[in-house]
Write a structure and sequence with these properties.
The structure is a single chain. With 207 residues, this protein is mostly helical. It has two domains: 68 residues, Fe,Mn superoxide dismutase (SOD) domain (Helix Hairpins, Orthogonal Bundle); 104 residues, 3-Layer(bab) Sandwich (minor pseudopilin epsh fold). It is 48% helix and 10% strand. The protein has eight helices and three strands. Strands 2-1-3 form a three-stranded antiparallel sheet, with helices on both faces. Strand 1 and strand 2 form a beta hairpin. Helix 1 runs antiparallel to helix 3, helix 4 crosses helix 5 and helix 5 runs antiparallel to helix 7. The longest helix is centred in the N-terminal third of the chain and has 23 residues. The radius of gyration is 17 Å and the shape is globular. The protein starts with 20 loop residues before the first helix and ends with a helix. 37% of the residues are buried. The structure holds manganese (III) ion.
Length: 207
Amino acid sequence: MAYELAPLPYDYAGLEPFIDAETMKLHHDKHHQTYINNVNAALEKHPQLAAKSVDDLIKDLNAIPEDIRTVVRNNGGGHSNHSAFWLLMGKPGTSGIGGAPTGDIAKQISADFGDFEAFKKTFNETTAKQFGSGWGWLVFQGGKLKVITTPNQDSPLSQGLYPILGNDVWEHAYYLKYQNKRPDYLAAWWSVVNWAEVNKRFATAKG
Ligand code: MN3
């Protein structure tokens, strides 16, 4: 079955004032939809793959036929990354959104980074340096949290890592409001992080 775009779990304006409604509308309705359209078109050539979830598809890119591998990597990756990204954010000022982390992830952040401020600094500085388009991620590897970046729409899943938290630093994610000031976007973004969803993904990452 072809992949479909799920509606956002909040209004386009739901992340204001940190992420503006116009950016959310374009990002979700146009950019994410385009990734879905492209991966669906590629899978029409290999319908035996269509039953897989998009995450399963990009976990083993070597198993993807060569004629569609790059399209799946970029657009299947784009679909997977954005599907997680929308759920990792929520309406600022509501319970569990923004502010300090909660639950198991809070304890693990303290253990591995010292405190939340030090973790944010590491995440923001690492992600700010990603050259060109890409993502900043929090993953769990060898019993420790680690901040990594990937270029383009590459997913940590393709490296055998499960993304716990991720921020999109393609310019389409922030340019209308923040222009070239990626660090300002990164700093503001913590106000919309959904810690319940981060904890859910952390539990999955621990297996
Ligand atoms: Mn994006």
